[in-house]
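call fold(seq) -> tokens
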Amino acid sequence: MKVIYQDLPPVEVAGRKLVGRVLFGLLVLVAALVGATAGLLLVYSTDLPQVEQLEHYRPSSITELYDGQGRIIGSFALQRRVVASYNDFPQVLRDALISIEDKDFYRHWGINVWRIAGAAYRDIVSGGRVQGASTLTMQLARNLFLSPDRSFHRKIEEALLAIQIERRFTKEQIFTLYANQIFLGHGVYGFEAASEYYFGKPAKQLALEEAALLAGLPKAPGLYSPINHSDRAIRRRNLVINGMLEDGKITAREAVEARNKPIELKLQHDPNSLAPYFVEEIRRYLENKYGSNQVLEGGLRVHTSLDMDLQRTANQAVLDGLAAYERRHSWKGHLENVLSENATLTSYRHPDWDEEPEVNGYSHALVTAVAPGSAVVKLGRYSATVLPTDATWTQHKLQDILKPGDIVYLKIVTLSSDGKARVSLEQDSGAQGALIAIDNATGEIKAMVGGRDFELSKFDRATQALRQVGSSFKPYVYTAAIDQGARPDDTIVDAPVTFPTASGPYTPHNYDEKFEGTITLRRALAQSRNIPALKVADRIGIKTVIDYAHRFGITSNIPAYLPVALGAAEVTLFEQTSAFSVFPNDGVRIMPRYITKVEDYEGRVLEEDFPDVKDAISARTARIMTFMLREVVLHGTGIAAASIKYPLAGKTGTTNDFTDAWFIGFSPSITTGVWIGYDEKKSLGAKETGARAALPIWMEFMKVALAGKDPGEFQPLPDLPPRPVHVDTMDTAAAAEESH
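ret:
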């Protein structure tokens, strides 16, 4: 159609034509922009995740381990998170988070156009990349579906996903998803887990200043960590409080009071730190059976045999026993110095500091300054001054044995809220200890210590270390003899003897280099005489003795040569302790167990373990041996334990050159084994026998394990009519026939 301009001046006609062309051009430009935008949105939205997935979304959940009373003793997770509901997050926390992160959360539709425009303008002007201005919904979209890259492409995808999320979910649902998903530092995800980690309580109990501190973490958890950067954390917390005041969420008085309060953390201990060696055994088993993904993300509920209270006692007993051993052998020095390793006093962090210290606990610390009569040390966020009275046992002046940069080993006496500690100077020469305690009736492992410090060495000396067991092997020798007709009051001659062997003559000796002449078998065992044990083993046959050891559950390979009767065989503490439980169990062997039940996230039982019971020896033989091992405690090498007024029995063990010290003992209800030694099998030192090094640890543990409980009684000794026999000259097979 042709437009004819009539009666118009030529200038006006030209002007109108120009306006028409401009309008047409603008329409074309708008259409092109709309088309390009639509095309871009189509391109960006084509590969976007489907937000419908969120309807069935379950965050990666922690697999938790419980002790026999339902208390958490450990956990496995890629992300340490406790999933909570909307109502689990208190109003003060919701207000704090919204005030600092997204003031219009309850009003916008997923994005805040003006905030995005402002942020984009600032980034363009500054030459930076698009960042900031994300709503809570956009942050949720990014955390769940997108990479953390800061780009226009990702920001558009983030906005599109946020709009979809807002269309499908309520604000409460979005807030809950965000509050459970967000990273808040130190391996913690979600506000419920963060509240428990930083303040030792559920989110519902957070005070204003605590909620504000947590709400300030999402922006930069590492930068505002209240553990590593308390000054920054306070500034960020106060910024949140100011935002809440501006939004009318709190009063001016509340804001002033909250801003003036110091940060008071009550850091939650990593539950795995209570029984790390035990937890590691559980992890290996679970991952082998269910796979790593299920264990780390599936939220399993694992019910174990452990007793949290007994585990604490075991930890303390082993560490105190090692400290007592170290003090007996004077100050050795040879301290690691971080300054010689290109570290600095301000940058160095010891692995022990990853856990909160405990009173009566032990930790490595860094010497930061030394003066005549004192030394200042740092252990994590605490500092302490070591005085001469804290190191009297060393018999040295502090300035002569310590210098800045040294790593020292301390016992923590007190801890104060102001970051000060009282300590005593100890020594870590490398000596290791292990303990395992087993319930006789069920086979449940109630406590297990695999070494001095799991963070420094994850090798488990309770289950993995094969060590010579010394005289703690002798009960198998006497069990075989009793089973073949010998009796406790039969006699044997403790005198010099030489045995012919395949490798030549073997002339053994007793520990004290003396001989007692004719003695009873029960005295020979109680006093741990070597010659009688070898004579009995030689008469019965060492292969028979080894067969009996295997009946008790010893699975380690035992070579068939006579010195094995004195404990030359290498066995784990786990095996030896479990084997000794046969005696109080009337000859029955119950397989040790760590786990009683495993449930999945929904509560379905995946497995349930019950005691596995096998006969090892006769009840008669078990009762006689229990009587003989009771003599060890009452009148023999374990007499120190007689001070504990409970029915107890057991056996010491000491190897050549004092490389290993053992005590394996039991009450009617529990069997406990203790080992001390060095990993490299060097000597513990002169006279460091099982009675001196291992038994005190065993006693410290058993005193607590039996306190306030019915100790029970051992089964009575069976009738044994008098029948004195000299084992040296008696055929044990004939004796067995005679006894019947």
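The mean pLDDT is 88.
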